[in-house]
Task: inverse folding
């Protein structure tokens, strides 16, 4: 399939697909006239790229996972040495958990303020959490 069809099928812009190619994440075949040609497996690759980028991984991280992008992200994988992949996932999971904790703290504060504004009794007190302790580290991608 050509780039426009892959874009329509996956809901990704052609610009994003070209970017994935520039980053070495998507490798189309080239026809004699230079047009990109993608196989059916490209749909899964693009879906995995989008999922992992949305989860907080970087394109550098995804290059480490290259062999895995063609697989389902659950179940057995045919990837080479899993060690770098495990390290990347563990680092990103820690960052994600930090962001989740930060967002939960902000949510709790907003709920408390809303209760105050409505004149409702306060919610039960939960242990205090610091707001945004992970914001600085989340901006710094892990070394690849």
Result:
């Amino acid at each position: 399939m050509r780039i426009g069809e892959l874009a329509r099928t996956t809901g990704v812009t052609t610009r994003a697909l070209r970017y994935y190619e520039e980053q070495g994440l998507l490798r189309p075949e080239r026809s004699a006239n230079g047009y990109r040609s993608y196989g059916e497996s490209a749909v899964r690759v693009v879906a995995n790229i989008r999922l992992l980028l949305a989860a907080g991984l970087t394109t550098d991280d995804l290059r480490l996972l290259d062999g895995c992008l063609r697989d389902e992200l659950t179940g057995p994988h045919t990837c080479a040495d899993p060690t770098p992949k495990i390290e990347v996932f563990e680092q990103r999971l820690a960052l994600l958990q930090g962001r989740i904790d930060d967002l939960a703290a902000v949510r709790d504060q907003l709920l408390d303020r809303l209760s105050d504004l409505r004149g409702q009794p306060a919610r039960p007190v939960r242990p205090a959490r610091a707001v945004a302790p992970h914001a600085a580290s989340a901006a710094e991608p892990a070394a690849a």
Notes: The domain at 1-56 is CATH 1.10.1660.10 (Multidrug-efflux Transporter Regulator; Chain: A; Domain 2). Residues 48 and 54 are 10 Å apart (CA to CA). Confidence is low (pLDDT under 50) at residues 135-144. The first strand starts at residue 29 and ends at 30.
